[in-house]
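Lecture 7 notes: from sequence to structure.

We start with a single chain of 184 residues. Read the sequence below before looking at the structure.
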Amino acid sequence: MVQPIPFPRSGDDSGGGASDTLELSWELFGELCRALAIRVAHEYDPDLVIGIATAGVIPAATVAGILQVEFESMKISRRDGSAVARPAPAVLTSAPPRARGRRVLIVDELTSSGDTLRLALAAVREVGAAEVRTATSFVRPGGYRPDFFALETPALIVFPWDRQVIERGELVTPPIYTGPILHA
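Now the structure, written as tokens:
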């Protein structure tokens, strides 16, 4: 069983309960990717890492670099470019044909229900991968369990690349994060 890594908490300063928000710095994100790569390396030797676009490609490329293996991506999303989300994710680009006959690690940034990872697993198996395992930076308690993960948390995760986005030419905090604490 994978053991969780302690992490700094934001929000609740009482020291007692769980935090509502986990703000990731680029440094902490890098360390979580390093921990994830080490866990993978101890139990699995992938030939290829496939990142789930959009956000999953960031930890996937980092893990692939640390493991010194090839990297590919595929897009699975609840969105099709619009702000409206589907009730279930859909495969928007096919699994890379280079997965055929190879040991593959599929990486995403977060899993709750596992719907996205299950779609990715099916797509990669369909192209004939020799073996497939899954990894995520974060898992939700009681949710789908990938083969490898860096951290389990119920907190709202503020990824460093989501902290601010450009809207109408201006750098702004996305609406989902206006309630949680955000330090500039």
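The longest strand covers residues 103-111. Keep this in mind for problem set 3.
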